[in-house]
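Predict structure. Chain length: 214.
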Amino acid sequence: MEDLSHYRKSYEKSELLESNIPKDPINLFNRWFHEVEDFGGNEEVNAMTVATIGLDGFPRSRVVLLKKFTEEGFIFYTNYNSEKGKAIAQNPKICLSFFWHSMERQVIIKGIANKTSEITSNNYFESRPDGSKLGAIVSNQSEVIPSRAFLEENLKQLENDYEGIVIPRPEHWGGFLVTPIEVEFWQGRPNRLHDRIRYTSQENFDWKIERLSP
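Prediction complete.
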């Protein structure tokens, strides 16, 4: 048995007050994102956990990279035939979460995921290195394969097939836009009296702002 009860930390780096936040969560996310990036404590500030409800009824989460955020929401890319792709197709209600330990901050986003347009997916795919493009083609993501060698041999074959020519985006690969309906910002504070501010989307396109007890 490993007792971890002595693992303790006091959170004292910042605060989150209603007097100093914007009226919408995207602007606050943008501010926090770049503050964390400028602080330099997170190597991949765009790393986030995507949680879905699987086809078997169990929740499942995994870390992926956020590739864009706008007033409309948050975009990431994946194989639509993967486990998470199939889960989203069946139930588009998903959760994104960011934990930025360097700034003692967390953001939790509940939203609805929809496929991005083909143009958006094509534009991002074209910006990727050729190795990443071929990786998207060769990988039947989440499917069982016999060995690592099987994957590498198929990649070598694709490298020969596409040498000197444009690599097209496979139809089963593209983006998801997550439109937020609720965004919670968590700022660590001393004595576990953390700041928690929740934005909830309203029908008139405004956001309801509430403080939650830690």
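Summary: The first helix runs from residue 25 to 39.
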